């Protein structure tokens, strides 16, 4: 290919793109990691430090000066220093006037101080334009380059121009700035890195609680009862049989609990005749963790599948099968083929396979990479329609598994029903309520309410009502 003038122009260095010098106060872990990343992105970097001795850890392309000298060399100063040392800035107030001060600090506890670190910095140096940024990116991630999980940089500040300058740097480093508004948002941004799986706590504790409850329930019903009344030691059930009973039960209850808040929300909206009133806090929180509840349920369903796959290789199962065959052969006895049992067994397995298939499909569509590629209507269709189909299939799987055993007295040891019967309570309540809600008279009214219609318009006069998200 021949080079034409436009190609040569494109390859020529563009002097207008020359990056502005950035000053970093503090040569600690974060300051060095951010400095290195900035140098790689083409920014001249100058460090402001208490010690002018250079170390091999400091990028050699960077200058190390006193705080006052370094600050004079740049319009943007990044504060890679803990909040408790900020008072050294007070004598530098004049030099810092008009400069952009970027607060990257985090705290050790949520809401540790009455005001955010960024607001505190703004009070200490009133002449500077303070911007909060970078606190959710770790020094390790900056150094190792594995930023996939934390590419987002929350930025907030009162000065639009200063915020824009910081967001330009964020983009130049290959990260994604997310404007969170004024400096008032800093407290919330500082709390982000301190939160430990906030949406996962309820689903995980609930599933652990259910697992523990059903474990002791099965221990009493399946092991202790057999020991007391039949003098049989079935303690080995604790390894596989009981977990394989608990997993599907917990999975089904959690799946029911994913759809129960949506149904309750619909009932609340129908009762109030408006969507412009906040749901009770517990319902709001429950609705927010439905995805996590569903994913925990899916994990239990996977465990059930794995436990089921190994059933044929279990010693107890092989022994029981061989024993039955041998005793039939010795007694010269055969059972005629029972068509009903054939149907029940095949339908139970087919419903389980289909239920699990749709459950996995639901799980896949909740992944951000997949949900981002579908529009809101498609996402709702999958999560709502396919979700209910999954719930129906899994409930039917359990009902057919129970089959004739629901009425058998042996299913009620010590008056305790088998746990699969208990697992049907929540999903059946959800399905019955949903069935009632899709009656045209209720469905029509609910649709109108979700489109903004109000039975009692007095609510619209009150400005503090927040629009609830329509339940899926
Ligand atoms: P660090 O390794 O302890 O470094 C802090 C630096 O602050 C020191 O190296 C020192 O630099 C300077 N310093 C210490 N005492 C000082 C004082 N009395 N007066 C003036 N300067 C003082 O801490 P870091 O991990 O780099 O964290 C720095 C800030 O970044 C913190 O606010 C932290 O919350 C935030 N942050 C850290 C990370 C991370 O992954 N580490 C992630 C996000 C945010 P000189 O010796 O050069 O003066």
From TrEMBL:
The entry's keywords: Copper, Endosome, FAD, Flavoprotein, Ion transport, Iron, Iron transport, Membrane, Metal-binding, Oxidoreductase, Transmembrane, Transmembrane helix, Transport
Membrane-crossing residue ranges in chain numbering: 204-229, 249-272, 293-317, 347-365, 386-407, 419-442
Start and end residues of each Pyrroline-5-carboxylate reductase catalytic N-terminal domain: 21-107
Record-level GO cellular component terms: endosome membrane; plasma membrane
Domain named Ferric oxidoreductase: residues: 249-394
GO biological process, one term: iron ion transport
Catalyzed reactions: 2 Cu(+) + NADP(+) + H(+) = 2 Cu(2+) + NADPH; 2 Fe(2+) + NADP(+) + H(+) = 2 Fe(3+) + NADPH
Location in or out of the cell: Endosome membrane
Pfam families in the record: F420_oxidored, Ferric_reduct
The protein, known as: STEAP4 metalloreductase
